[in-house]
Amino acid sequence: MKLKRFVFYFSCFLLILIVWCVASSHKRRNRPTNYTINETPTKHITIDGIFPLPTHRVYPNVKSEDSVIPMRFFKNNFGKSVHNYKWLHNPHTRCVANTTSPDIFLLVAVASASWEFERRDLIRKTWATVNQVSGKNIVYVFFVGNDRRNNKKLEMEFNEHHDVVMEDFDETYKNLTLKTQGQLKWITYFCPNIKYAIHVDDDVFVD
């Protein structure tokens, strides 16, 4: 008799515990976030970007126990980027919202070789002419490296279209990683109001 009573009470305890765990998990999943996509007003964007970065865009570098990455890469310099290349051309107002251009739904980051002027012009005249879909705004930005041979032409292109980001690292194939890092940094600093970003190359046709 005592054994049956023990089993009954123990089963009730387990059932209550399971229900509590499930309810707590559901509550955590549905808890509203502390920020929205529009938390950082674009009016605060300067030529240096949003800095220091909003707290929700800062993540601590935590080294796992089995990591072989040197400790120097885990310095907690919150809000600072290890990608410290200077912007030579920077359309920093590209994502600034105003009454005629509300927040950006999609930013298309196009990795382009600095000398591919014709490709960029072709993109501007074809699939990059689509700047709104179902009332949602789309913005296009080209990313190039430093090319001393073509700097004059690049400056003219930037002044005409204001859609080219140029960083101070050599435009070479081996620096593609730097270009990708530069895209992520630029988007973080200058486009806090976008909902989505997509990376494409300048030899891709988007339909």
TrEMBL record:
<keyword id="KW-0735">Signal-anchor</keyword>
<dbReference type="Pfam" id="PF01762">
    <property type="entry name" value="Galactosyl_T"/>
</dbReference>
<feature type="transmembrane region" description="Helical">
    <location>
        <begin position="6"/>
        <end position="23"/>
    </location>
</feature>
<protein>
    <recommendedName>
        <fullName>Hexosyltransferase</fullName>
        <ecNumber>2.4.1.-</ecNumber>
    </recommendedName>
</protein>
<keyword id="KW-0333">Golgi apparatus</keyword>
<dbReference type="GO" id="GO:0016758">
    <property type="term" value="F:hexosyltransferase activity"/>
</dbReference>
<keyword id="KW-1133">Transmembrane helix</keyword>
<dbReference type="InterPro" id="IPR002659">
    <property type="entry name" value="Glyco_trans_31"/>
</dbReference>
<dbReference type="GO" id="GO:0000139">
    <property type="term" value="C:Golgi membrane"/>
</dbReference>
<keyword id="KW-0328">Glycosyltransferase</keyword>
<keyword id="KW-0808">Transferase</keyword>
<comment type="similarity">
    <text>Belongs to the glycosyltransferase 31 family.</text>
</comment>
<keyword id="KW-0812">Transmembrane</keyword>
<keyword id="KW-0472">Membrane</keyword>
